[in-house]
Specification:
This protein is of the alpha/beta class and about 190 residues long. The chain has one domain: Rossmann fold. The protein contains nine helices and five strands. Strands 2-3-1-4-5 form a five-stranded parallel beta sheet, with helices on both faces. The longest helix has 17 residues, at about 115-135. The radius of gyration is 17 Å and the shape is globular.
Amino acid sequence: MRLILLGPPGAGKGTQATRLVEKHGIVQLSTGDMLRAAVANATPIGLQAKAVMEAGGLVSDEIVIGIIKDRIAEADAAKGFILDGFPRTVAQAEALEKLLADQNLKLDAVIELEVDQAALVGRIVKRAEDAKAAGQPVRKDDDPEVFKTRLAAYNRDTAAVTPFYEGRGQLSRIDGMKPITEVAAAIDKVLGS
């Protein structure tokens, strides 16, 4: 099973991805984690990324796609994967489509968690309060102002990916404002599991 979870920050993608990993024995692939691992392991693509990052630049789509290509070739991704944080742009979505086609692979689902963005700020504030109450550290991106900046970046860049997949008939929309168990059940229905 190969899938992409789309939706703005705070929509619940991480929560649902964790559940799907456990349920289906697939891996969650975070581009940030993959990039850090490639650099740490000094892979050829990781060395390219390190040079760009040390120069203060943004890692190109070509490098990110190279890292994804290397990662999905690893044994633990053979049963499938969830892409987390990728694709962020239409150009990345097009590059992913080509990468998968070149390997005779296809996406099984592209799921967008639709949310009321105004309500997301409240959700993030509550998540920070719950973490504090439990004596856990508050995520840096749970600061309301930081979150609003991330949300604006999502709306500017990543929201365009949704129509890309919709136009290909691959997109399923789920109400991400429902309780976690209802969102999970809706995802399972889309996946036929």
